[in-house]
Amino acid sequence: MDLQLKDKVALVTGGSRGLGKAICLSLAAEGAKVAVNCYRNTQEGIDLTDEAQTVADEIAKTYGTEAIVLPGDVADEADVRETFDRIEEKLGPADVLVNNAAICPTCPVHEMTAEVWRRTIDVNLTGTFLTSRELVRRSLEAGRTGRIVNVSSQAAFRGSTTGHAPYDASKGGIVSFTVALAREVAAKGIAVNAVAPGMIFTEMTAKTITANKEKYLARIPLRRIAEPNEVARVILFLASEAASYMTGATVDVSGGMLMR
Length: 260
Prior knowledge:
CATH superfamily: NAD(P)-binding Rossmann-like Domain
Strand order of the largest sheet: 5-2-1-6-7-8-9
Shape: globular
CATH architecture: 3-Layer(aba) Sandwich
Oligomer: single chain
Number of helices: 9
CATH topology: Rossmann fold
Low-confidence stretches: none
Order of helices and strands: EHEEEHEHEHEHHEHHHE
């Protein structure tokens, strides 16, 4: 099947590792030019630029398509504008946006600070709004179509038992935002869909999953944890013309945890 992604320009937020990396590689395998966003904050001492550059180098070496690294904070309006400016300068206007960047602090609600709550909502939900707004604005101004894929979670519907309330709430907000934005821009040729993954085996989750494997497997009808590329393939479909008659949908990729 021709997904018609060759030479399309795609921005993947949180693209330096885990699911984000798998998404970047999947898009590149179809011939897309990929902008790999990663988080960098010198005050916090967090800089994922090197990891993102490794992804970009792998794309160039393996698939021979263009890839650039764009450090920044999706919750910062100025960073988001600069990100899109640099994409246009280096690769051309963005055709595809995958909102994957997220944080997931662990803390019970009764012990949680307002700062932790706000930061989680800012990155996960407001970040999705800011990047989507920027793509929509630029697409409408130029008369271009586009595709947005938002990464939600099964936790948006089921919640968590291990202290992830702000994450769960932000992912629920993404589902509602997906529907709202899809209704606004459908007639303009911009499709907005989401995926709701279940548990994924990544660098960030490996230790927790390995320590409690049987507990987690008992929740999943397919009785296994997803590999990142299994979720990335669904995102790739939604980012492509193969999903041309879909908008406002949230696709369950949870191994049967949701069954919705």
